[in-house]
Design a protein that fits this description.
- It comes from Daubentonia madagascariensis.
- Pfam families: PQ-loop.
- Its main location: membrane.
- By secondary structure, the protein is mainly α.
- Helix content is about 75%, strand content about 0%.
- The longest helix has 20 residues.
- It starts with a helix and ends with a helix.
Length: about 120
């Protein structure tokens, strides 16, 4: 009974996370404008998800404890590309995406880097 309930909670969390940003993405696409979306807050959210996901992977936590974060990261990247597309310059997204990809590897060069990144 408890295992079934836990499985239901895990899958429902994944389902909610998969649909979390979809209304925002569809609103941006329908309006054909990124007005009202804060680029700094989107980048901060994306960086936080990335650091948390890398920390969980680095320390070998079970995938079910962090499986929703790749979904959230993908949705944020899509939203980031929409912001730059509707602001007229998709090429400006390249440095941001490059920094995010590089940070995935830099965070685990040394153990103290990942530990410092998640300290409060």
């Amino acid at each position: 009974m408890e295992a079934g309930l836990l499985r239901l909670c895990n899958w429902s969390t994944l389902g909610v996370c998969a649909a979390l940003k979809l209304p925002q993405i569809s609103a941006v696409l329908a309006a054909r404008s990124a007005r009202g979306i804060s680029l700094p807050s989107l980048l901060l959210e994306l960086a936080g998800f990335l650091v948390f996901l890398r920390y969980q992977c680095y320390y070998g936590y079970p995938p079910l404890t962090y499986l929703e974060y790749p979904i959230l990261i993908a949705q944020d990247v899509i939203l980031l590309l929409c912001v730059f597309h509707f602001n007229g310059n998709v090429k400006q997204a390249a440095p941001y995406i490059a920094v995010l990809v590089c940070s995935w590897f830099i965070l685990t060069l040394q153990k103290w880097i990942i530990d410092l990144a998640v300290q409060e």
